[in-house]
């Protein structure tokens, strides 16, 4: 009886292991399949490395959320669409593999670049590198804010998932209340000196100025009705 129980337990364990391996194979894509996926269908491309790693080289149109920064990662992926596949990558595939498991458990349909950017580079695939652009001074920034207007400043970045989601809200806000305020957009991913000087800790960050003075500030996702009330 004991032998039979042990035998059945072993069979069960092997079956579970095979199922897990099979599932991993479905979500871990080789370079060719990963490239085909991000080029031929509507997807969300997510770099789960640090911001510094991202700046040193990333895939075109990739968003960024640091897997090792638990609070940041969870906050940023809230803005991802669960109806659109998420293709993730990191340097070697380990962090993005863990991120894929988490995302799929939360209801997303996520895939991992097997071998990460190391495999991508070895295959000779293109990488984008962002050079530090001309930095805006505080004086130049303040000149963008007329004292006789209500100004909404949007500090965002092209790789920021919540920023992408807020683009729709800002567009609707301009269409319905555009005559009541002036929108100024600052690329925080490029204007790093200004972001540091103003202590901007997260993107997007919104600031409302009246009579040339800041009267309201909020970061993250903001509902249109909140903007209307504050403006």
Topology:
Blueprint (H helix, E strand, L loop, with lengths): L1 H26 E2 L1 H10 L3 E4 L3 H5 L7 E2 L5 H8 L8 E4 L4 H12 L4 E4 L2 H7 L15 H6 L7 E6 L4 H17 L4 E6 L4 H6 L7 E6 L2 E7 L4 H7 L1
Parallel strand pairs: 1-5, 2-3, 2-4, 4-5, 6-7
Antiparallel strand pairs: 6-8, 8-9
Keywords:
231 residues, alpha/beta, Oxidized Rhodanese, domain 1, Glutaredoxin, 2 domains, five-stranded parallel β-sheet, four-stranded mixed β-sheet, elongated
What would a concise description of this structure say?
The chain is α/β, with parallel strands linked by helices and 231 residues long.
Describe the structure.
With 231 residues, this protein is α/β, with parallel strands linked by helices. The chain has two domains: 26-122, Oxidized Rhodanese, domain 1 (3-Layer(aba) Sandwich); 138-230, Glutaredoxin (3-Layer(aba) Sandwich). Helices cover 45% and strands 18% of the residues. It contains ten helices and nine strands. It has helices spanning 2-27, 31-40, 51-55, 70-77, 94-105, 116-122, 138-143, 161-177, 192-197, 224-230, and strands at residues 28-29, 44-47, 63-64, 86-89, 110-113, 151-156, 182-187, 205-210, 213-219. Strands 1-5-4-2-3 form a five-stranded parallel β-sheet. It has a four-stranded mixed β-sheet with strand order 7-6-8-9, with no helix packed on it. 30% of the residues are buried. Residues 6-22 have low confidence and may be disordered.
């Amino acid at each position: 009886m004991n032998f039979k129980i042990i035998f059945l337990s072993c069979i069960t364990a092997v079956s579970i292991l095979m199922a897990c391996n099979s599932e991993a194979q479905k979500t871990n894509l080789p370079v060719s399949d990963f490239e085909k996926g991000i080029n031929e269908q509507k997807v969300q491309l997510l770099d789960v490395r640090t911001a510094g790693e991202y700046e040193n080289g990333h895939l075109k149109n990739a968003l960024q959320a640091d897997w090792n920064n638990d609070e940041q990662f969870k906050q940023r992926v809230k803005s991802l669409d669960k109806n659109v596949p998420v293709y993730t990558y990191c340097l070697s595939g380990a962090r993005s593999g863990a991120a894929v498991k988490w995302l799929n458990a939360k209801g997303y349909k996520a895939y991992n670049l097997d071998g990460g950017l190391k495999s991508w580079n070895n295959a000779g695939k293109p990488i984008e590198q962002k050079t530090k652009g001309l930095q805006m001074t505080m004086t130049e920034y303040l000149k963008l804010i007329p004292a006789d207007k209500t100004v909404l400043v949007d500090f965002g970045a092209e790789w920021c998932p919540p920023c992408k989601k807020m683009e729709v809200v800002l567009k609707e806000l301009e269409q319905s209340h555009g005559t009541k305020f002036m929108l100024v957009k600052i690329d925080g991913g490029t204007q790093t000196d200004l972001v540091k000087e103003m202590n901007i800790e997260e993107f997007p960050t919104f600031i409302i100025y009246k009579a040339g003075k800041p009267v309201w500030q909020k970061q993250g996702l903001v509902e249109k009705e909140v903007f209307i009330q504050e403006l």
